[in-house]
Design brief:
300 residues, binds thiamine diphosphate, globular, Rossmann fold, 39% helix, binds iron/sulfur cluster, alpha/beta
Length: 300
């Protein structure tokens, strides 16, 4: 196994200019800065409309030092396939092609193109940053918004449906690498991107990215809340490598300790969950306990 990256071994080179248009405390900002360090030069980013396009900015004040292709909402993965073919025609196959989209651009409107590319096994990395809503257009619910969350278009009862499990959908394609990560554990994200780049075919990493205005918390708590999501077992860090599932990092340690923080501690940090009833909190806890019961049994 490759040595884990530490703050001392993280490359110093930056691919994001200081200052960009993301909100203070944006989880995406952290994931993007560290993610680009892992991707390095010789990378072309393909990005659909989202907070990431706002963060990147418009030429000549763009915040990213890598070439970016902004495409329509539904077409990130299709554009990545096209880019691979163009690079092949030019004999520049050493250049890495990376799609980077929000949860709306992945779980909902981008999923057809992504599923098609994964089924063909096109050789690119797709990164989804999951802020659990359509944030750039004013916090509407997406397929990955959790049940009970209040959004601009679920204002009274909160979202009625469960969060869509996109990493599981991607793993079901049988691709060689699917992982989950969190902007609250940026070095883990760095190592997962590095591993993905060493493999052939379509690779997928799902990144949980706390969003202060969309979730309703003060910007200074972004890391704390991202960590609580993992410590409560609400959001798990794992890899599915060549079909083998394994928990990683902080989630792996939690299986050994068997000490999950009650999920209510996570839910009460965000005003989007303000209308959850005690029964809904108990139901969320029961779902987590069932899932983690399975992890404990596998670990015995
Ligand atoms: C086909 C289409 N529908 C709607 C929009 C408007 N739009 C631009 S960004 C955005 C939200 C993107 O949400 P997500 O992918 O989750 O990224 P986030 O904004 O949360 O970063 C929407 C709905 C669009 N550009 N194209
Ligand atoms: S709305 Fe959320 S995801 Fe978008 S820039 Fe602000 S903090 Fe980041």
């Amino acid at each position: 196994m490759a040595a884990k990256t530490t703050i001392l071994t993280l490359p110093k080179e930056e691919f994001v200019h200081p200052g960009n248009r993301a909100c203070t405390g944006c989880g995406l900002s952290i994931a993007y800065r560290i993610g680009l360090k892992a991707l390095g030069s010789d990378t072309i980013l393909i990005v659909p409309p989202s907070c990431l396009t706002v963060l990147q900015g418009l030429f000549p004040v763009a915040s990213t030092k890598l070439p970016c292709l902004n495409v329509t909402f539904a077409s990130t993965a299709a554009a990545a396939t096209g880019m691979l073919e163009a690079l092949k025609a030019q004999g520049r196959e050493h250049i890495k092609v990376v799609g980077w989209a929000g949860d709306g651009g992945t779980a909902d409107i981008g999923i057809q193109a992504l599923s098609g590319a994964a089924e063909r096994g096109d050789d690119f990395l797709f990164l989804c940053y999951d802020n659990e809503g359509y944030m750039n257009t004013g916090v509407q619910r997406s397929g990955t918004t959790p049940r009970g969350a209040v959004t601009a278009n679920t204002p009274i009862k909160g979202k009625m449906q469960q969060k869509k499990d996109v990493p599981a959908i991607m793993a079901a394609h049988g691709i060689d690498y699917v992982a989950t990560a969190s902007s609250a554990y940026p070095l883990d994200l760095y190592d997962k991107i590095k591993k993905a780049l060493s493999l052939q075919g379509t690779k997928y990493i799902h990144i949980h990215t706390p969003c202060p205005p969309g979730w309703g918390f003060e910007p200074r708590y972004a890391i704390k809340i991202g960590r609580l999501a993992v410590e409560t077992g609400y959001y798990d860090l794992y890899e599915v490598e060549k079909g083998e599932f394994r928990l990683t990092g902080a989630s792996e340690k939690l299986v050994e300790k068997r000490q999950l923080v009650p999920v209510g501690e996570y839910l009460k940090t965000q005003s989007r969950f303000r209308i959850l009833t005690p029964e809904q909190v108990a139901d969320t806890q029961a779902r987590i306990d069932r899932k983690w019961g399975g992890y404990y049994r596998t670990n015995e």
